[in-house]
Write a structure and sequence with these properties.
By secondary structure, the chain is α/β, with parallel strands linked by helices. Among the domains are: 213 residues, Rossmann fold; 49 residues, Immunoglobulin-like. It is built from 18 helices and 26 strands. The chain has a nine-stranded parallel β-sheet with strand order 5-4-3-2-1-9-8-7-6, with helices on one face. Strands 11-10-12-13-20-19-18-15-16 form a nine-stranded mixed β-sheet, with helices on both faces. A four-stranded antiparallel β-sheet has the order 21-22-26-24, with helices on one face. Helix 10 packs across helix 14 and helix 14 crosses helix 18. The longest helix has 27 residues. Bound molecules: beta-D-galactopyranose (GAL). The site of beta-D-galactopyranose (GAL) has 10 residues, from loops.
């Protein structure tokens, strides 16, 4: 067994002589899997209906002859220019009415029947030709669905949106009720009057926006399904499409059920010290989307990307450390974009496994080293210990795309970032040495001791009931601010925010939002101090928060922390209630990291959750248990000494007293 190692391979960018050098170097670098054909449509079908597969035959045969397996793309992510020339209506249109052009990539309207048919035909040809190719390991459908164009506002999309709404609501009065069109004279007399939420004089209808987000995600999923259906007529080889971490336009819960393995593309900024913590959250999401099954990192950079304003190179060892972070958090594959750094085109300054300067380079040496290590690791620990092994977690955070979409709409009560709120909780929990799962609020929560529901803004009755039942049946439920505000149509739950069901379980209700002044107000000299002050033993004394605060009315709960000073002086900030067999916490603000971490410690220790990170290694050392192995990764600038039983299987040294340098990794087997 191997942990897959490789990346996007784009041989069409290079003359044939280079291909032989490619496979030679792939063998040297320990490459086991190459993703081929992602952007090859124009090469495979240079004119409509005229297919050229000879070059791809050669490439696959060459890879096979050299023992490299293939993740074969369906090549539908970027249509060739002829599609737009012959069928201009396949080009997507923005909310402002601008039709996007050819000359870049991914210029298609997801609802276009013409695009879908041409894509299906290409897939049919590819599958007919390569379904039985001995190099084939995995089908790679399209690429990063929704990247660049996630919403299309053209007339074809408008018609598809109306069909989707007809199927959802049945009659237009139902839609009028759901969308609250009594407001601002928005009433529709028939479905034919409805358009996508195109540019408008001011705020667009919130439920229309939310439905359009739902529709757009499901149109992309329909594109994916259409291609998979063609593959499945002829091939039973596993199928995937690459996700993009916390990607707002696409509800991955719906997608995850339809891939055979979850795969992800993530490019954390090497210059940002918070990147490893944020990346840890992305890895945990990928594991969770697959229900705990192993996933694969489909793309990362060996060093710099080319699309930030300032593109920092990875520091020595950083690529290796971040790769092990993925393995620790459940990945069975480490792949990159792309194999050979391009000599031309928009991504020529994006790093590759083989850099512009060749193999006498730091990047290539690190590529080779990691390849050797991953092979040795796979051989050494075998299937039982790591391949397919699970990452245990008794703590979960709810993730809900409806809440994300709605909370961040214009005219919502706050400019709070949904994902940054999730991240604050995740970061606090992982800094205690935990792997944290993500769950749906209506999913099976029975395997967890603690479930945190931050900013669960849009909540169905079923979700609220599921969360409350979790607490009542013995779990520790932690509800964060801005939760239970609306139902699934964005209608307010009247009579005190949180809704009846949570109000009973938590023993509190929310009278009013009272967010702190925006930092720019203070900066403008208005004299309003932005941070909110907090006090309570759960924070170890006093703490600050900057993001949010609310007026909490306690009916039947203990108050564990208070807001102090300012308008909320003396009002509850954190409450707890014994809810039958379990506990229900409410947190009406977002304390800064240290305080949130202390609050998490209180919650976890009360719930009996063990925390392997006692803090003695400092904030920068990431500890994760996967199967029988404990991974220790030092993301900080200074070296540190490990004090664990067992030995490090990478160095063969005892783990007690082992010096872990900056970017160092130890994999400890007790
Ligand atoms: C991804 C994409 C790749 C490449 C990479 C660069 O979005 O799938 O083709 O563009 O980003 O970082």
């Amino acid at each position: 067994m191997t942990i897959w190692y490789g990346g996007d391979y784009n041989p069409e960018q290079w003359p044939k002589e280079v291909w032989h050098d490619d496979v030679r170097l792939m063998n040297r670098g320990g490459i086991t899997l190459a993703t081929v054909g992602v952007f090859s449509w124009a090469h495979l079908e240079p004119r409509e209906g005229e297919y050229h597969f000879g070059w791809l035959d050669e490439v696959l045969d060459l890879l096979h002859a050299n023992g490299v397996r293939v993740d074969l793309a369906t090549a539908t992510a970027s249509p060739p220019p002829w599609l737009a020339m012959r069928h201009p209506e396949t080009l997507p249109v923005t909310a402002e009415g601008v039709r996007l052009s050819v000359g870049s990539r991914q210029q298609y309207c997801p609802s276009s029947p013409v695009y879908r048919e041409k894509a299906r035909e290409l897939v049919r040809r590819i599958v007919e030709r390569y379904a039985d190719h001995p190099a084939l390991e995995l089908w790679h459908v399209n690429n990063e669905y929704g990247c660049h164009v996630s919403h299309c506002y053209c007339d074809v999309s408008a018609a598809a949106f109306r069909d989707w709404l007809r199927a959802k609501y049945g009659d237009v009065d139902e839609l009028n009720r759901a969308w609250g069109t009594a407001f601002w004279s928005q009433r529709y007399d028939s479905f034919d009057e409805i358009t996508p939420p195109r540019a408008a004089p001011t705020f667009r209808n919130p439920t229309q926006l939310l439905d359009f987000d739902r529709f757009s995600s499901s149109e992309l999923l329909a594109c994916y399904r259409a291609e998979v259906a063609v593959i499945r007529e002829r091939s039973s080889v596993p199928v995937t499409t690459n996700f993009m971490g916390f990607f707002k336009p696409v509800d991955y819960w719906a997608w995850a059920k339809e891939v055979d393995i979850v795969t992800d593309d993530t490019y954390p900024d090497p210059a940002d010290p918070i990147s490893p913590a944020y990346a840890a959250m992305v890895r945990d999401l990928m594991r969770s989307l697959g229900g705990g099954a192993p996933w694969m990192l489909m793309e990362q950079a060996t060093s710099a990307v080319n699309w930030r304003q300032q593109n920092a190179a990875k520091s020595p060892g950083q690529m290796r450390a971040w790769s092990y972070q993925c393995v620790a958090r459940g990945a069975d594959g480490i792949l990159f974009f792309q194999w050979r750094q391009s000599a031309a085109g928009s991504e020529k300054f994006h790093s590759g496994l083989v850099p512009h300067s060749g193999t006498d380079t730091r990047v290539w040496r690190e590529v080779e080293q990691l390849g050797q290590e991953l092979k040795a690791l796979s051989d050494r620990v075998g299937e039982a210990a790591i391949e397919g092994s699970r990452v245990p977690s008794s703590v979960a955070i709810t993730l809900d795309w409806d809440s994300w979409w709605a909370l961040e709409q214009p005219a919502s009560p706050t400019d709070v970032s949904y994902v940054q709120t999730l991240f604050a909780w995740h970061h606090a929990l992982t800094s205690l040495g935990l792997a944290v799962d993500f769950v749906r609020a209506d999913g099976d929560l029975s395997g967890y001791r603690v479930v945190v529901a931050p900013a669960h803004f849009v909540a169905t009755d079923g979700q609220l009931d599921n969360l409350a039942s979790f607490a009542e049946s013995g779990g520790a439920l932690v509800v964060g601010f801005a939760s239970g505000i609306t139902d699934e149509h964005l209608h307010i739950r009247l009579g005190g925010y949180l809704g009846e069901r949570l109000r009973r379980t938590l023993g509190v209700w929310i009278e009013e939002f009272a967010p702190p002044a925006a930092p720019d107000l203070a900066a403008r000299g208005s004299g309003i101090a932005p941070p909110v002050q907090l006090s309570g033993d759960v924070f170890g004394g006093s703490a600050e928060a900057r993001v949010w605060s609310e007026v909490v009315r306690v009916e039947d709960a203990e108050t564990l922390a208070l807001f102090t000073g300012g308008a909320l002086d003396g009002w509850p900030a954190v409450t707890r209630r014994a809810a039958d067999a379990g506990t229900a916490w409410y947190v009406a603000t977002l304390p800064e990291h240290g305080a949130l971490r202390r609050l998490c410690e209180s919650i976890l220790s009360e719930a009996g959750v063990e925390m392997p990170g006692d803090g003695s290694l400092g904030e920068h050392v990431e500890l994760v248990r996967r199967g029988a192995l404990l991974f220790a990764i030092n993301h900080g600038p200074d070296s540190t000494q490990l004090q664990f039983d067992g030995s490090d299987i990478l160095s063969g040294e005892p783990a007690r007293g082992l010096e872990l340098p900056s970017q160092g990794v130890a994999i400890i087997e007790a």
